UniProtKB/TrEMBL annotation:
Keywords: Endoplasmic reticulum, Hydrolase, Membrane, Protease, Signal-anchor, Transmembrane, Transmembrane helix. It is found in: Endoplasmic reticulum membrane. Catalytic component of the signal peptidase complex (SPC) which catalyzes the cleavage of N-terminal signal sequences from nascent proteins as they are translocated into the lumen of the endoplasmic reticulum. Specifically cleaves N-terminal signal peptides that contain a hydrophobic alpha-helix (h-region) shorter than 18-20 amino acids. Residues 169-216, 290-309 are annotated as: Disordered. It is a single-pass type II membrane protein. GO terms for cellular component: membrane. It comes from the Archaea. CDD domains: S26_SPase_I. The chain crosses the membrane at residues 139-160, 230-247, 259-282. GO terms for molecular function: serine-type endopeptidase activity. This is Signal peptidase I. It comes from Halobellus limi. InterPro entries: LexA/Signal_pep-like_sf, Pept_S26A_signal_pept_1_Ser-AS, Peptidase_S26, Peptidase_S26B.
Amino acid sequence: MIRIPTPSMPSAGKLLATLVLLAAISPFVVFAVPQAVGADEGFVVLSGSMEPALSPGDVVIVDAAAPVRVGDVITYRTGGDSVPTTHRVVGERDGGYETKGDANENVDAGLVGPEAIIGRTVLVIPFVGHVILWANTPVGYVSLVVGPLVLLGVSELFAWARREPGVDASGETRHRAAGSDPERDRSATDAAGADVDTPAAGVRASGADPEAPAPQSAGTVAVAAVDLKLTLLAMAALFAYAGWNVYREFAVAAAPNPVSVGALTGGLLGLLFAGSVTLTAWRASRAAAAPSSTPALTDGSGDVEVRDE
């Protein structure tokens, strides 16, 4: 009989923590992937020319396909300036748009042609831009990307160094099968007599636990499944973040920063390595969990008794 474990419901604390985490990362996901909300691009407000509607550090999500009317806030490029401007449309004249910052007294010089408009602002996310600008600094990059990866590696090294040589990752002695007692086994052997046949090599004893972990060699390092998953997620986050930086640098300066390229390469290699290790461990666990097609004899003779549970 195969028993299927019933999944337990998460506690209120875990559910609340998950909701808080999703709420915290959602603004950054929308900024990185505006297509998730049906927009096209996201920008960080750098000046206070649009206060109080927009403040420095706010993020504006713009839609290139949205129609533009008087009173809308648009993001556009002016001349050779590589940094876009986000102002409000205050009028239309000669096929162009007059724009003005809400905090400015005068309208902007010149008209904004339709070809210069990047899109109309459809969503404003406050305060998120401060974190994004800080993350693009060397200190922010080290704190948010390099720091967590270093801490993860150091914690794994400490856990491996503190682990006893004869103990595996689960805390059980490698040379002792789960649930076995050496003193009890020795007493049982003495009581049975000296002519008791020894089970053949590679055949499980009748009282052994079939799910007991196999002994590991001295050169094997055990890694918990949760550590593999965390490493895989960290490498994926590093690869995505570095790829986004390289894309933005290509769009702005047509030449990425060498640091971003190195981080992208490292993230890709780490993602491939962590993925291959995780896939190998998953295949090994499935192979170990597969039932044997031929039941093993306990004494090398006689009929096989199969118990139907």
